[in-house]
Specification:
With 107 residues, this protein is mostly helical. It has a domain at 33-94. It is 79% helix and 0% strand. It has helices at residues 4-54, 59-81, 85-94. Helix 1 runs antiparallel to helix 2. The chain is elongated. It starts with a helix and ends in a 13-residue tail after the last helix.
């Protein structure tokens, strides 16, 4: 004999735990992305000001600015597309499709 109230309580607790877990993970994810974006922007500005201060620009400085640009673009693209690449990769592996045929990477 199944106790209905206990089963309903179990389902409710499970749904609540799943919802709270998703909330905490997504909150941490967004806070981390904002922090990464802010630190990247700050580092790029400080590097640029350092170049102005020294009065000359080396290839190392330019390459570092491109790295900062790429980091900022990656954060921005995530916010615009809201695509979680790891989930898409998992789905393609689960469905035994290649990442290319699943549309994750294209030539």
């Amino acid at each position: 004999m199944k106790i209905n109230w206990a089963e309903n309580l179990r389902k409710t607790v499970h749904q609540l735990a799943e919802s709270l877990g998703n909330l905490f993970v997504e909150t941490f994810h967004y806070l981390a992305l904002f922090a990464i974006g802010a630190v990247t922007a700050y580092a790029a500005v400080m590097e640029f000001l350092g170049m102005l201060e020294t009065g000359h620009i080396k290839i190392d400085d330019i390459l570092l600015l491109f790295i900062y640009l790429e980091l900022g673009a990656m954060v921005g693209i995530y916010f615009k597309t809201k695509i979680n690449v790891s989930n898409n990769l998992f789905e393609s592996l689960k469905n035994r499709a290649s990442p290319v045929s699943a549309g994750l990477w294209s030539a």
